[in-house]
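[agent] plan:
  1. take the single chain provided in the ticket
  2. run structure prediction with default settings
  3. attach C-alpha cells to the ticket
  4. add a short note for the reviewer (M.T.)
[agent] executing step 1
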Amino acid sequence: MRIPAHSVCTAIRDDIVSGVFARGSRLTEEVLARRYGVSRVPVREALRTLESEGFVVTRRHAGACVAEPTDQEAADLLEIRTLLEPLGAARAAQRRTEAHLKVLRGLVRLGQERVRRGEGEDLRSLGGWFHETLAQASGSPALIALLTQLRHKIAWMYTVEQSSLPADSWAEHGALVDAVARGDAERARALAAQHAERAAAAHRPRRPERPASVPGPPRVRASQQAVNTAGVRH
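[agent] step 2 finished; step 3 output follows
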C-alpha cells in the first residue's frame, strides 16, 4: 500500500517540531525513506510541502535542510497569530455549526474540571484542541490552514510557560464560546484578541541543542486523522 505524502509530511514535521531533526541539519530522501518505512517518492513530495511551509530550505550543494528561523521571524509569527485568531473567532461566530459548539463547550467543561481538581497535565493539549476547533468553526479553509501552520511553527520555535492562573484562562475560553454561540462576532473578536495577547506573553524562544543522533525509525500510518475533527462538519 502506498503511504500518502501528507502522512509522511506530518511525520517529518512532527519530528522537526519536537527537535528530532535539529535546525540546519540535512534531510536526505534516502535516510528519511528508511526512517519512515516508505519510498522516496512521498518523501520528495513531503519535503516540497515543508519547504513551502517554511520548515525546510534547499541549500546549494547540501540539498534539503531544516530551516533556521531568525528571532525576528519567530517574533513575527506571534504577532501574526494575534491578528489572525481574532478574525477566526469572529468568523466562527458567524459560521459555526452545532457540532462545533458541542465540541467547544465540552472542551471548556473538561478544562475547567481539570483546573478544579488540580490536574494540569493535559491542560495544554486541551487548549490546543480548543483553538484548533475554534479555527475549524470559522468555515474558512484558507484561514484554518494558516492558523494550523502558525500553531506548528510556534510550537517549534517557542516553549510556553505554564499559566499561573489556569482558571482565568479557561474562563476566557468559556466567555469566547458564549460569544460564538450568540453569533456576536465583534465580542468574539475582542475576547480572542485579549486572550491571544496574554498567551503570547507566556512564550519563550526555544534554544534547541543539536542532537547527537537520531532515534530509530518510526512507521508512518497510512491515515492520520485529527482527533477533534471526527463528526464535525466544515
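[agent] step 4 note for reviewer: The mean pLDDT is 87.
[agent] ticket updated
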